[in-house]
Amino acid sequence: MTSKGKFLVVKSTLGAGLGDRVRAVLSAVLYAEYSGRQVHVMWDDGLYGPESENVFPRLLALKGTGSVAFDPAGIQTTRPAFWAGQLEQPMKVLYQRHGPPEWNRREVIERFSFDQSRLDYREDAVVMWEFDQFGACVPAEEVPSGGACWGNRRFVSALARRHLAPAALVAERVEHFRARHFRSSMIGVHIRLSNEPQARNKLVLEARYHAQIARVRRHKPEAGIFLATDNRDVQQRFCNRYGDAVVVTDKWLGAPGEPLHRSADKGDALENAVEALTDLFLLAACDYLVFPAQSSFSMTASYFAAVPDDRIMPLHPRAGWRERLSGLRRRLLRRG
């Protein structure tokens, strides 16, 4: 299916970190595969650069579905309708005019995003900002085994590697770091340790990361460790424990427990985004991944990782039946 001259515009919100933003783009490119629309991403809310400046092209590159001649002035009709003539406005500006007084995610999706279960829109542009509708456009007979949802890593991973890549600056930093610091086998570890209430509920005990690292190194004693974290205390503890086996990128870190993208003293916002995406793609380049299962940043890194599922080790806040079952599955896959 083709829709020549028809666009899908992805806007950004101040509350979304890089993981959530990339997942929104993945939802968009999946819809584009079925609708034939061209995707134009506008990260223009000011979180990762100057407000009203679209920093997306400086961070990521679209492959196959990107728009090369998008002109907001040429868009006459949109869905939702109030975006018409206002696509150059950051979403937060329109939210102040049209959003509910209290943040309600479902209501904001209904007001500011189009319904992705439909493919027959006639408008010049359809607009979205979230990833909640991922897979709604996939016909039932084409839904892959396990469901076309975020839980199907193989499905999402193929989509991510088909349509997204780091922009030149990020790619250069990733390759430079890999060439200088990666060993022949690497364990990627992501630890987010934030004081945000929603993040505190997702915390995984640090000892469980060490346990997973020890399991891998029993089979791969030469494996190095790439650590991506937002907490300088965690970074120091890892360096003390593993010595020169652990490597980290040189990036800005705020006070321990302070989320990087919301810090009041974060310096160069665009540089921070480049640093974060460098970490994300370095995690994806590792041979094994250990991370908090409920971290959007971690899951996004896993989508770009071209490794078997038994090398992806998400840790849940409380080790329950899912994690034990996942561990059993990995052991069976290794034996097989």
Write the layout of secondary structure elements.
Elements: E1 7-11, H1 18-35, E2 38-42, H2 56-59, E3 60-62, E4 78-79, H3 91-98, H4 105-112, E5 125-128, H5 153-163, E6 164-166, H6 168-181, E7 186-191, H7 197-200, H8 206-219, E8 224-229, H9 232-242, E9 246-247, H10 269-284, E10 288-292, H11 296-303, E11 312-315, H12 321-335
Parallel strand pairs: 1-2, 1-5, 4-5, 7-8, 7-10, 8-9, 10-11
Antiparallel strand pairs: 3-6
Description:
The protein is built from twelve helices and eleven strands. With 336 residues, the chain is an alpha/beta fold. The chain folds into two domains: 7-164, Rossmann fold; 168-335, Rossmann fold. Helix 9 (232-242) links the parallel strand 8 (224-229) and strand 9. Helix 1 (18-35) crosses helix 11 (296-303), helix 6 crosses helix 10 and helix 10 (269-284) crosses helix 11 (296-303).
CATH architectural arrangement of the largest domain: 3-Layer(aba) Sandwich
For the biggest sheet, the summary is: 5 strands, parallel
**How far is the first residue's CA from the last residue's CA?**
41 Å
* Average pLDDT reading: 88
Question: What is the helix fraction of residues, given as a range?
Answer: 25-40%
The total count of strands amounts to: 11
- Shape descriptor reads globular
Per CATH, what is the topology of the largest domain?
Rossmann fold
Order of helices and strands: EHEHEEHHEHEHEHHEHEHEHEH
